[in-house]
Amino acid sequence: MINGIDDYANEGKPDCQLALKEHHDYVATLTKLGVAVTTLKPLEDYPDSCFVEDPAVVFDDFAVITNPARSTRQKERELIRPAIEHFYADKQIFAITSTGTLEDGDVMPVDNDLIYVGRSARTNQAGIDQFTKIAAKFGKTVKMVPVKQVLHLKTGTTYMGNNKLLVSGEYIDSPYFKDFDQLPAGEDYAVNCINTGNGVIMPAGFPGVKGLLTDNGFTTPRGQHVRIQQDRRWPDLLVTTF
């Protein structure tokens, strides 16, 4: 894990023991809030594989094996597929192929079968075009959003439900999201939240965002503030161990 892709070298190497504790707390919190968690075996040769969201996009009725932009993550596509096959029939599983790239950090479903996909350093137009065709088979519409200042679309915005969108940075007052009730986070890191349906899990130490969510009708149960770097709201989540 400490040898993973690092865009924040000035922050130093991650603390492996602390990360293990945070991972344990994350899984425990999801379980406590009623989420069925499948824990995958660690992949020691692939230090970024703890971020299981990137190599697979999952919906109720279909799944897409993505095509990560970084070559060091390509093998993860094959290794996560057996876990996906446990939940979906073959006809429900699709794959993004070269020259398209797509990572699920750029895929943000909202209501009414609408999906926003960020065009970023990790997801290109060819990948978005492929994903759009796949999603259309299941009655879903895709809208592209440019990503200029952050890694992924969901680094800068998270859909919380009830037409409310937690936003930061370049997505505050964005015309791409003019139809939503935008909640400016202020504390950018804390935009990564998960609405489990039984409460919101958010990063600890950001009282501004906690207050913003509370004021807008979202509960953050006591003790459910953990460091997280995933942002999907599904009844079943895949979580890999370190």
Automatic annotation (TrEMBL):
InterPro entries membership: DDAH-like (IPR033199)
* Superkingdom of origin organism: Bacteria
What Gene Ontology molecular function terms does this protein carry?
Answer: amino acid binding; dimethylargininase activity
The entry sums up its family as follows: Belongs to the DDAH family.
Reply yes or no: does the keyword Hydrolase apply: yes
Q: Which GO terms describe its biological process?
A: arginine metabolic process; citrulline metabolic process; positive regulation of nitric oxide biosynthetic process
Q: What is this protein called?
A: NG,NG-dimethylarginine dimethylaminohydrolase
**Stretch forming the signal peptide:** none
